[in-house]
Each structure stands twice: as structure tokens, then as C-alpha cells.
Amino acid sequence: MLTMLAIPLALPASAERVLGAYIFARHGDRTAKVLKNTELTELGYNEVFDTGSYYRTRYIHANSSQHIQGINENLVKLSQISASSPSDDVLQNSATAFLQAIYPPAGKASNEVLADGTTVQGPLDGYQLIPVATTSSGSNSEDTAWLQSSTDCRKAEVSSNNYYSSELYSSLLQSTKSVYYSISFLLNGTFNESAMTFKNAYSIFDYLKVGSIHNTTKGATDDELHQLYLLANIEQYNLAYNSSETVRAIAGARLAGDVLQSLNKTVTSQGKTKLGIQFGSYGTFLSYFGLAQLPATSDNFTGIPDYASTMAWELVTNSTTEFPSPSELRVRFVFHNGTISGSDAPTEYPLYGQSNGTISWSDFVSQTKKIAVTSTAQWCQMCGNTAGQCAVYSNSTGPASTTGTAPAETTASEHGVSRPVAGAIGAMVTLAVVLGVEALVLFLGRLQIRKQREDAEDEADEENKTS
């Protein structure tokens, strides 16, 4: 796996403070999507818990340099934190695991003394209950390999389907036939022969990847998994984002709106709202990457993030005022691919093609408004939906074009300055080498040699049985 180098940035001033943050996270290890009834595994539970533990150290611990100003350290104050997830078993359980790490059981600190002097301790050593709100999109997203099925956005579905008519897709569908034929013996019984193609690149990769983690039987080699992963990256990124049809990135647009509204609430409440946490699928990562122009920073942002990956937006300032004016606020974006453990930490990356590591609050608001969806009416118009919750808006201004995003509705103040801030190195598998002609030829050759070797071994076994 190749790693992505962080852009060199100046160290933050010692006076810098974090006033609020918003985290978007992917679930941990799970069972394969194609088998349905997808479940979070114990490994996945631990991955998400470990990542949550890191963010507790970063944002909640009082001695952390990134401690969110004024946030309770040991006993959760529900007015300071919000958490959300789609109606999906894997994502909701991941959110619960993450929150268990953010605010672990409080022990005796949670004891309550009643009027008659009785001391009551909460169950499970003072387990802290943090509600997880259900978002309106993304339901059952981990039980389907089709990115747009959980968005319910009509024009996004049409746009993603346009990819299947593209020259790029047709070319890859033909040129990779031998790739999938060479591993077909690993897919029999789960995929029909007609489904063993590039059109199901992610489902095939996901199935074999999960098998490599949990099954002891012979499966795909590391080299095969890497190549299949690169193909899945191409398929899924193109289904999640297209620069000329931005409605395709509706999931990322909604996330951008959620982030903007949450940070703006921190500003308008003078810091009373401090931390937002949302769980979602890899497709939302990919579509946000495209909308925020992160691939301009590195081609690695066109790849599928690993389990327990996170990205966060931090509202920071160098002002000594308890809660400064908007002109003294900046936003930092950080990303980490996969579980955060040991000495790992997220890396800072510039948003929207900026050269600086952080972006002024005013620029963040104006740039985010260009890509964000922040209201049901706006979503309905952009998606062209007219039924259900959209019926009331169907006769208003009409659906928005599929080639752009309507401006977001926000009351955020638009003032501020930017200042570069340091980040740590993160990692994400590169897409730059994918499908190079020489690499593909070598890969196909290796697959053919492996298939011939295994066929010969099978024939030898049969001869031994009959002798």
C-alpha cells in the first residue's frame, strides 16, 4: 500500500484553540454486502472503538492541545454533542461503539443521591447514554452495493446510470473480462457467471476482501485483492462523483450542508454547541472528496476509504477572546484512512483548491454554500423528486439542473482570516498506477499462471484419488 504525503504546513501558534468540531466516520469491519443481512463484526466494533478513543484524546481530554473549549471531560452534557446515523444496523452500531469511546462509563462519578439519602449508580458501571438521531438518507446502505439506492434522489440515480453508458466504463468492462474470469472459481456459488464483470467490481472486491479477513479457506492473493481494489475504486468513484453532473454527489452535498449547519450553530450559539458526529458509507466520502476538490491535492482521494476512516472539520481561532467574532475564526479539515491507533493521527488537507491548510470562516461558508444542500426543499428541487415529502415543493420553483448544486441556505456570518496549521501523515491506497498497460498485462499473466497451476494441482489430486 502506498501512502499519501501530507502537504508541508507551518506549526500552529500556541494560542490556537478549538471551539467546535464535526466528525464524519465510516463503520468498522462487517460481513460482505452481497450476502445481505450485513452485520458489524467484533473486529469492526473494536476498530470503531479505537478510532473513537483517539478522538476522545484529541477533543475531550482537558490537557489536549486540540481540546474543544469548554466541553465536559468525564460526564457527557447532551446539549454539547449530537450524533446521527442512517437507519442501518452496521452504521448505527458503529455510532454506538464510537460514542462509548468518546464518553466511556463514568463509574462513581455518575452516582445520584436521592432525597432519602439512597445512592444510585447507573447500570454497566455508569454507562453514558448518548442518543443517535436517524438521518433521512442512507437507510440500509450497508445492505446494497448500489450507491444511490440509499439516497432516494431520482436525478442522482439517473446521473450514476449515465456512467454505465460512458466510454470509460465500456472500455474497462471489455478489457477486464479476463481478470474476472481468472478468479471466477473463487466466486462460484455467490455470483452468477454474468455478474462476474467490472460492473460488480466493488461487490466482488468486498466479498473477497471480507473472505481474506475471516475465512481460513484458500482465497484471493494479496496481489489480486490489490488489483481488484483499484478496479473497485474506479467504478465507485465514478458512480459517486462527476464534475459535470454534481447531482451525482448528492450524498456529499448533504454532508457538506450538515457540516456547515453544525459549525454555524457553534458560531451562533457562542460555543454552546461543540461536537457533531455522523456515521455514513464510503460513498459519501467519495462524493464529498470530489465536491471539495480534494483529488486536486492527491489522486488518493479517488479511492475507497478503509473501515473506520474519519474526516473532521475543526473551528479554530488564535483570538484570546472567550468566543471571538466570525472574522477571527478558521476551519481546518483533517482525514485519516482506516482505524486510528498507536501514534497515528489524521492529516490536514486544504479544501476547495486552497493553498493554505486552514480556510477562513467566511471563505469556508461561501465555498461550502456552492456545493451544500441544507434543506428539504432544496434537495427536492435538485433531485427532481415530486412525491412523498417533496410533494409540497413540486409546484414551486421546479427542479434544479443536474449539472449544478443550488446555493445552500444558511445564516452563517462570512468573515475571517486563514492560517496554515500542521497535520500528521495519513495513508490511502493510490489510484495513480491503476490499469497501466504494462501492469495490467503482468497482472493478467500472473492470474493465468496461477489458474493453470491450480488446475494442474486439482488434476493431480484426482489422479491420486483414483490410483
UniProtKB/TrEMBL annotation:
One of its GO terms (molecular function) is phosphatase activity. InterPro entries: His_Pase_clade-2 (IPR000560), His_PPase_superfam (IPR029033), Histidine_acid_phosphatase (IPR050645). The chain crosses the membrane at residues 421-444. Residues 1-20 form the signal peptide. Keywords: Membrane, Signal, Transmembrane, Transmembrane helix. It comes from the Eukaryota. Belongs to the histidine acid phosphatase family. This is Phosphoglycerate mutase-like protein. It comes from Aspergillus heteromorphus CBS 117.55. The lineage of its organism: Eukaryota, Fungi, Dikarya, Ascomycota, Pezizomycotina.
